[in-house]
Amino acid sequence: MGGDGWRHRCRAPHPVPRPAGGHSVSGARFDFLRYAAVWEDADILVDALAPAARGARVLSIASAGDNALALLTCDPEEVVAVDLSAPQLAACELRIAAWRSLAREELLAFLGVFESADRVTTYRALRSGLSDRARGYWDTHEQDIAGGIIHAGKFERYLRSFRRFVLPLVHSRRTIDRLLQARTREERIRFYEERWDTARWRLVFRLFFGRAVMGRMGRDPAFFAHVEGTVGDRILARTRHALTELPLHTNPYAAYIMTGTYPVGALPLYLRAEAWQPIRDRLERVTLLQARAQDAAGHFGAFNLSDIFEYMPPDVHEAVYAALVEKARPGARLAYWNMLAPRSMPGSMSELIRQRPDIAAPLHARDAAWFYSAFHVDEVEG
Fold it and tell me: Quick one: three-class SS letters along 10-42?
């Protein structure tokens, strides 16, 4: 990752010690933008955490910033967005600068939701409001700004390859458009079984979203170190669930994968009209921190932990979970996902933590970012 670390309260950056160990992934790189968008459903995250987050400090994995910003709609005291990756924090900071200065339609065009030929010009007007680290990163990545920063990550390029080169081998543009139309559950099942679920679809999906291709082109081979079983088959099963059980015409993740952008009727939470003003009014409550999650100072009432536990061996998962619970206030909630490796509350924490499947299960059933096998909500006793 390089550099001296990063602390940024949306105004002035302050150096912190460079992070080491902990929730980092052995062998994985953090010196480039892996995710230009967040691929976890902010709607279920906010529903899970809102009762604990309101008026409290919230600790959130930063990633590209989408869900850290979405959590501002809960009216927290502060959102500390933490990440090991300086480029990920630069993505968060540029979003915040754009939010502060642009009208909503201008923001959507600048990010890459709408077409625009003026993004670099807009960036040059925004750059003076960035920290030296963020400005230094984006000054050398203006080509990513020109294309829209929500498309600039390694994972988004992986999905672009699927959309441009793989999906056309299976389905026509007309069939893809029909998939994303509003339908009843029965109509979605019929369309999937009769038109979509071909032998070629299953073959190319298993290959492209298998361990080898996804590890090399999309994520990182190190992220699969603790995954057992056939990756492609498991994601295919979750995809069938999404394409039949979930409304697709309002699903931002399905829309982006299939079309390369978000339509106005299928925006992620942080970009919706109703979230615009609450987020803008609370931008000063965001703190960006380059560190391990468990190294964030102070105590918190809510935790968005993404899927960080999945990348850890069981003993490290237990240690990191315990360290985070030490920072939790009574009644705090921890929300996190599993994609391929099962990770939940360690048994050693059962006297301190109450698992909340009554909250998590119905939320996971409507998780629009469907590729996750589980969603967990844990609550600190007291």
Answer: CCCECCCCCCCCCCCCCCCCCCCCCCCCCCCCH
Letter for the amino acid at 110?
F
The helix/strand/coil state of 332 is: strand
Helix, strand and coil content of the chain, in percent to the nearest 5, comes to 55, 10, 35
Indicate the pairing of strand 7-8 with strand 286-290: antiparallel
pTM over 0.70: yes
User: What sign does the dihedral 21-27-33-35 (CA atoms) show?
Assistant: negative
Rounded to whole angstroms, the Cα distance separating 236 from 306 reads 21
The pLDDT tens digits for 95-142 are 999 999 999 999 999 999 999 999 999 999 999 999 999 999 999 999
- DSSP H helix total and E strand total for the chain: 17, 8
Helix H segments across the chain?
42-53, 66-70, 86-101, 104-111, 119-126, 132-139, 142-147, 154-161, 173-179, 185-191, 199-208, 211-213, 231-245, 252-259, 273-281, 314-325, 357-365
Contact residues for 5 (Cβ-Cβ < 8 A; gap 6+): 15, 16, 17, 18, 19, 290, 291
Measured CA distances, 229 to 24, 151, 155, 222, 309 (Å) = 23, 30, 22, 16, 18
Per the CB < 8 A criterion, the answer to whether 342 and 321 are in contact is no
Whether the CB-CB separation of 20 and 49 falls below 8 Å is answered with no
| Euclidean distance between the first and the last CA atom of the chain, given in angstroms as a whole number | 39
